[in-house]
Structure to design on (242 residues):
């Protein structure tokens, strides 16, 4: 990591800490500069303003969430239905716990989406690519009866949006959301899959927390925490040695 990258990371680490404790509105560039032992002017060398720091933090959180749902694509011996169901449940659980454990993240996300609409558009595209890949695979195997994968991807994504960062939309508990999502996925699967000898497609069951995807999600979350701690240690070490 170059000196410039290290300084930029130092600013991000300090901002993440301040935003999570005091919130975005109450944090000033002057305070970040003091935390980083640098002048406010030096902060502006790396970021045009406070909102740009917030966007970078939100971007990293969004990428971590997508990594969780992408992990299911590498799980062996999974049908397209299993992959799709586990993706939406893993996304629900990961983003729900993120906002539950870091409540200021919700505030930050709302500010970023309001100020930078393009950020949300790019995040939606990343999420849809995962759905589209699963639908393509299900179509190719004959498991899903899909005529128009792109249109179905958009519809599927719209139908499950409530279950991604759910606290943005509702005060329901995670258990309530899981039960509701199981019903939603049952309706979706009965629309995607052909019936067998006149029998309705089976109802969606809530995936157990010990599924391979849950382990993958935990691994991604642990890796993210480890990376944050490592970055904090690096910036702290360089501060001592300087």
């Amino acid at each position: 990591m170059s000196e410039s990258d290290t300084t930029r990371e130092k600013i991000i680490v300090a901002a993440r800490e301040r935003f999570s404790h005091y919130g975005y509105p109450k944090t000033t560039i002057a305070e970040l500069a003091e935390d980083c032992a640098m002048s406010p002017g030096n902060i502006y060398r790396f970021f045009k303003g406070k909102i740009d720091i917030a966007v970078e933090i939100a971007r990293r959180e969004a990428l971590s969430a997508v990594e969780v749902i992408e992990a299911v694509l590498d799980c062996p011996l999974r049908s397209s239905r299993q992959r799709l169901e586990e993706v939406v449940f893993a996304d629900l659980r990961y983003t729900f716990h993120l906002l539950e454990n870091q409540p200021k993240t919700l505030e930050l996300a709302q500010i970023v989406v309001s100020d930078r609409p393009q950020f949300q558009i790019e995040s939606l595209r990343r999420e849809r690519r995962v759905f589209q890949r699963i639908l393509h695979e299900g179509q190719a195997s004959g498991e899903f009866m899909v005529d128009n994968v792109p249109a179905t991807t958009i519809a599927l994504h719209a139908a499950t949006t409530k279950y991604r960062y759910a606290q943005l939309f509702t005060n329901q508990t995670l258990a309530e959301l899981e039960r509701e999502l199981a019903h939603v996925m049952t309706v979706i699967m009965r629309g995607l899959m052909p019936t067998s000898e006149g029998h309705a497609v089976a109802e969606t069951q809530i995936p157990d927390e010990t599924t391979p995807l849950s382990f993958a999600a935990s691994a991604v979350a642990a890796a993210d925490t480890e990376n944050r701690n490592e970055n904090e240690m690096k910036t702290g070490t360089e501060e001592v040695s300087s």
